[in-house]
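Cross-posting from the modeling subforum.

Setting up a comparison between two proteins and wanted a second pair of eyes on the formatting. Protein 1 (sequence, then structure tokens):
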Amino acid sequence: MTIAKRGFSAFAALATGLCLAATMAQAEQIEIHNTMSAGGSEEAAITRFTEILEERAPGRFDIAPYLGGQLGDETDILELLNLGQTQMALTGGLFMGQYAAEYDAVSVPFVFPNWDSVEHYVMETDSGRAMQAQSRERGNLVYLGPQMRAFRHMTSNREIHTPEDLHGLPMRLPQVPVWVDVWSELGVQPIVIPAPDIYFAMRTGQVEAHENSLASPYTRQMWEVQDYIVTTAHLSFPWHWVASARWWDSLSEDDQSLIREAVAEARAHGFTVEQERDDYYRAQLIENGMSFIDVDQAPFRAAAAPAVQRALADMAEGVTQDIQAAIDATAN
């Protein structure tokens, strides 16, 4: 090879390397956090989000999912988002309690009868928009949308058909004051126990009931210690797609639009997977010997109403009206 050809080859290799380096430098890093382990609708939605961005903007984004709380719990990640030290999260409702508690109606049991009304309240009402604005102002969060989690029901060793059947029932609850107040109104004996201790508390008789989505009795093999699942459908406690405002504001409008579109489609995919998983859990719980009691939910909502009203009374003006508007707009 002549000196000229060797020089040209070296120049071409250098140019190629510089082009590759430039391409890599242009890739926008996006860390996405979630506290759940792999295998659920959360991972499915994040995976779909990643696929959409790669399909529509190949090489533009370098996405790194962190599942199972790898870099901390919700509190830790909210702080990182606030400071702009990470980019995105599919997070629970903790941020609303911290930054916009006066609009956090979606965390109160027995308020919304279906997922559509939850989504409508968050995305389409003045209260939902105020929640989003305050989350940005107080927590440096850009709100991108809610993702459905299956409705929560209760399990029990006692047959429950009406609210009267709940009186005196020792029931495990998380340390969420409004949940404890609502279930106390229904007549149960609330016992606050950490989630990892639920199965042992049931086996030893410390509690005879608990509430959660069907994933809880399935993954905890509660058919060994519980007989019934009562479909109270008292709460859908959604995930929320959020981004760090410090990072978001550094993006171009085109990148912001791409990400919003990808989130919307990922949310829809997560919804489908969550429904499929919920149907699967129900079938498996029945197969393993648990009996479902599909109750009329209206009497439970009526019995819980005094506590629900106490919770809503502490919220901002207009929240109650926006709840009703969301319910009316999504009524079948």
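Protein 2 (same layout):
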Amino acid sequence: MRTLGIILAGGNSKRMRELTKKRAIAAMPMAGSYRAIDFALSSMANSNINRVAVITQYSSRSLNEHLSSSKWWDFGRKQGGLFVFNPTITPDNREWYRGTADALAQNINFLCDCHEPYVVIAAGDGIYKVDYTKVLEEHIARDADITVICKDMPKDADVSRFGVVELDVDGRIVGFDEKPASTNLNTISCGIYVIRRRLLISLLEECIEMEWTDFVRDILMRQKNNKKIYAHKLESYWASINTAEAYFAANQDFLKPEVREWFFRTEPEVMTKVEDNPPAKYNPGAKVSNSLVAGGTIINSEVTNTLVFKNVFIGSGCIIRNSVIMNNVYVGDNCVLENCVVDSRNRIEAGSVFRGTPDHVEIVSGKGK
């Protein structure tokens, strides 16, 4: 069944603190060698979705450079392709995207020009693998108008940063509560939707007429009694990285053998833009345990429970624990980093000490992209 993919990748969050001052959340480096958007793109490519549009807005230069060639996700083809849409200022429209529904509505001509009968809409900040073919089969079998991919969270999980859904016995969504202060429910929306293209166009035309801008509030919540909106439960790993602590935790999850097995050794693969870096080098004095180390990196010190991204230099006498060090970082001698996220293209002077906690990570900010 032919399907069109749309990734909403223009978002930013103040809860990411300094990490998104220079990049969109979807462009955040992940798991040593990836970007957050790679997971949504790879799920679509692996589900034979050949035409994908990425809608960007906030600080999109880094993301646009990452997407400059579609070959890495096998979208460079005659039928289909990878399209990147930024806000367009015209005599009739001088607005940036005012919300998720408005971002789709401002690109409604793209939807009208396509011929795929179904659309998958996904957020760019999710870390997961999904077979959309199975989701679409369930969507058609239920005769659903909209299918929302959902996840059951642990009973003690904080769901206040998610949209919480209420289901009936058949799995139909009968209630939405967007970012509740408190709730007894623990099933959340993953921000991934399947919908018929013509229905989506009709709903967006109504949004344009009524000047509605948000997909959840103005489409899902308004239509829950008029349209058949069902949940598809995701049983495998999923994480959203829309806070600094969530970003830190999602990267730390890749140090767990079962998570690495799922993403790195279980087909289908997660694809990304590949750089020609030499293997990591461990000099005398290096002691690395339970860590992911990317290519182009040189280590001279103790590194534990840490993700070290590409082209990082770590000097002698350092103690680095429970941290995330992004691309192109220089760490001088005798530094201590614990529960930290070190932003890309940063230089840490010799003898520096940075300590955070898992509940409030220390952000060591740089100026790179």
